[in-house]
Amino acid sequence: MSAELPAPVPAVDPETQVFWDATAEGRLLLSYCKVCQQAFWYPRSHCPDCGTDQVEWLEASGRGTIYSYTPQTRIGGDYSSVDELILAYVELDEGPMVMTNIVDFDPDQLTIGQAVEVTFHDTGEGSALYRFRPVNPA
Predict the structure, then answer these.
(1) pLDDT of 137 over the 90 cut
(2) pLDDT tens, 107-118?
(3) Domain map of the chain by residue range?
(4) What confidence tens digit (pLDDT) does each residue in 60-114 have?
(5) How far apart are CA 126 and CA 138, in angstroms?
(6) CB 15 within 8 A of CB 45
(7) Lesser CB count within 10 Å: N end or C end of the chain?
(8) End-to-end CA distance of the chain
């Protein structure tokens, strides 16, 4: 299934500007705590575990696995023209779990634990939405 999903412009604030700028370049960044030595999600300037501001950006591999997913059919707002989309949690190889959409997939082949990779959908406003697609077998 390869539904053309809208790519609405995300809300960008000074704390997440670097993250959204990187998406326009096709890069997925994570916040990384230098004290806990852990990557975390959603991007922010303080570690959610220890509270330190010793946080830096880490470029993610863009790979992970589907932790959970559900088809959505009652969709409104920017997505009201879409008949169905897949809302999912993807566990990144670096550890954090992100909420996202799965795109470019065969509905009969989608499974929990399936390997996925990031893809970016341009918003046309200097950012892109990160979504994930199944990794094609070699």
Answers:
(1) no
(2) 889 999 999 999
(3) 17-130
(4) 999 999 999 999 888 888 888 888 899 999 999 999 999 999 999 988 899 999 9
(5) 33
(6) yes
(7) C
(8) 20
The dihedrals phi and psi of 21, each to the nearest 5 degrees, come to -60, -40
CA 99-105-111 angle, to 5 degrees, is 65
pLDDT of the residue at 3: 53
- Our measurement of the distance from residue 120's CA atom to the centroid of its chain's CA atoms, rounded to an integer in Å, reads 9
Tokens of 103: 């795109």
* 127 contacts 10 by C-beta, under 8 angstroms: yes
- Torsion, CA 133, CA 135, CA 136, CA 138, rounded to 10: 170
Which pair of structure tokens corresponds to residue 112? 């929990």
Residues 7-23, mean pLDDT to the nearest whole number: 94
